Each structure stands twice: as C-alpha cells, then as structure tokens.
Amino acid sequence: MTIRNATEADLPAIVAIYNESIPGGKATADLEPVTVESREIWFRDFDSRRRPCWVVEDDGRIVGYVSLRSFYAGRPAYDKTAEISTYISTSHQGQGLGTLLKKKMIAECPRLGVDHLLSFYFDHNEASRRVNEKLGFKDAAHLPEIAEVFGKKRGLVIAILHVESRS
User: Fold this and answer.
1) For residues 126, 166, 118 and 114, what is the CA-based torsion angle, rounded to 10 degrees?
2) Domains, the chain, ordered by start
C-alpha cells in the first residue's frame, strides 16, 4: 500500500469512495451522491503544506483517503485546529486502513501546524468511535438527533485530540 498526496487526477476515485459511504448512513450527512464537478473547488482548497488530502493505493487502485480541513471556515483564531476526515472503500473496510491513515496524519500534525485535531462522527458509527478511542481522541461534544439520515434521527459526536500534548 502506498500513501501519497492526492492530485486532481485522483478526484474521480475520491468521489467514488465518498459516494460509497452515503447509502450506509454512518459516515456522511450527504443523502445523494456528489459529482466530481461539485467537489472541484473543495479539492482545490487542500494544501499539502498545511491541510493535505492523501490517498492510499493498493495495487495502483485508490482505496481510501484522509484529509485535513481548517476548522470553522479557517478563522485565524482557530488556525491550529483542523478537522480530520477518513473514507475507506467498502472493499477495504475492516482492515485497519482508517486507523493507519489517521495515525499517519496525526504524526504529521506538528509539521502541518495542527495542535488540536477534531473528528466528527455520527453517534451510531461504532467503527469511527473505536478508531478514535484507540488513537486517543476524547469526546468533547454530543449533539443528539441533530441530523435526519434516511428517516432516522442521528446525533453527532465531536471528538478532539490535543496533538501538542502527545509530542
């Protein structure tokens, strides 16, 4: 497996993996598939020096990605806080890939200027909860029934990892 910076040529694979997560109702609040075109501006906001998007390849095929986004629309007071997102193709879930990607991104946070890492996940997503716990994230907030996903009310958990205290 190879982990590398995503390029614009990877966007169709990134979108396909993201869209795979929608029907399960556990990983995103999107309810309909997104298009490559709708994600172009989103993708161009990534910066390998501060807020990267990495893909993982298995035998030349992209099977997952992890990204960092500035928290709260990049307002300067939150400059050292970022949100991490990880998506794994259904063909590669349950193999520890999400943990590996998050662990690698956490290790890079000091270089990226990130002291506080946030992970947002639905409260019924046990896999995300387990990965976050394993990596030292602590639940900081729970917003019960804030979303309606395919007719079911779902809560959002915001977990935080204070990266600077781990160094």
Assistant:
1) -150
2) 2-165 (3.40.630.30)
